[in-house]
């Protein structure tokens, strides 16, 4: 049992800065080229010094790694590649001692095909209670040789795979990730057992994978056909795979378990773009937070960014939840790259960091955001994402945003591992990007994040959850928080005068009283 950080309020997560640790890529402690819990333990003081409040660690459970851990064979143990339960307990205790909360991934929608339940379902045959834990159906067509409905898998191809006795099973993701049947009480009970297993060990909460999945409509009707299924994009009400009303029953169960453990929370990965539908996940007896992906999907234009903010705030208005801002994660191109890459992308990413961290609510950083890591184009033979294989090599998948974090030195693997052949190759030319090199440069991305997180944690200017838009020059956004913080973001293409006030922090040099384009500043009046 791990001691809890005791000094924070029960709703510590409302304004928290979470740091997403993509475990395979954060730090390798045992020299096998893959990141692990020991590696993370060794970097906890870095995270404390960076100023994050909490971690979200991506799945580290036993897994055949068809989807790099999101195919969970046993949700109540640790994959040997990542460590063991004792290592996890030690990590948790050390993080707590440093004042860092620890949240972990919960993957309810599907298991691995290696999970003992799925193996039992295959062995038990049609009509068995073992099959009832998953979504097995007979096929269509005279000999049942066509899938039961027209649903596509998010990773390409049909969402159904046929087993030797002729039945089909549903997998919204890879065939190695069979969907569980949440209408089966055993499935819900098992999820609760998993939650308690980790809550009893002392974790502070969960990030819930595909939190708009889980419930499937009665009869599994055909959906509106769509050419591009897109990775977890919201396709609206015609897409019966996601956002079914029944999912809220599951969220209420999840919340009722959390309520037994004061101060613990859950954030949902909810790819639902309609504000009102998203708000439903944030009712008082459901999730405490839901990622709002509007900032992550917004173009670098003042209109798109303002829209993203307005809608994100509208979604939480009338719910007990604060907004929850994300710029990057392990599923999408990194924002340095999205914003144009190179110097331009980095400059914009610095401004975006100040925008994200000035907004009211919780913020999630993805490991490497603080270093300004870009995506890396990998050669075909290095690609590992199931999307690459399932699409027959037409979609490159998500490996580009999952490159291991560069820590130190001038050559790959930059202190990430003692072994040169890391699970995804690291490029030449990253000597200036390493955490060590950036710690020494006051103008680095890392220094900007450290300063921003320090202000955010200590300055009364960040008080209050409201946001008031201020008049601003064309092409600029400006808003004020009740505590007095003013954030100005300039995308106008030319420098604009800074408003009255003292500059707390700026993403670029603002001497002369002007804010250049693709830059942001924090001021207090
Ligand atoms: C969302 C996760 O973020 C992604 O990485 C994963 O492939 C899918 N869920 C399936 O679990």
UniProtKB/TrEMBL annotation:
InterPro entries noted in UniProt: GH (IPR017853), GH13_cat_dom (IPR006047), O16G_dom_2 (IPR045857)
Keyword Protease: no
Top-level taxon of origin: Bacteria
UniProt entry keywords in alphabetical sequence: Glycoprotein
GO annotation terms (biological process): oligosaccharide catabolic process
Record-level Gene Ontology MF annotations: alpha-amylase activity
SUPFAM superfamilies per record: (Trans)glycosidases
PANTHER family: ALPHA-AMYLASE FAMILY MEMBER (PTHR10357), NEUTRAL AND BASIC AMINO ACID TRANSPORT PROTEIN RBAT (PTHR10357:SF179)
Family in the record: Belongs to the glycosyl hydrolase 13 family.
Protein name, entry field: Alpha-glucosidase
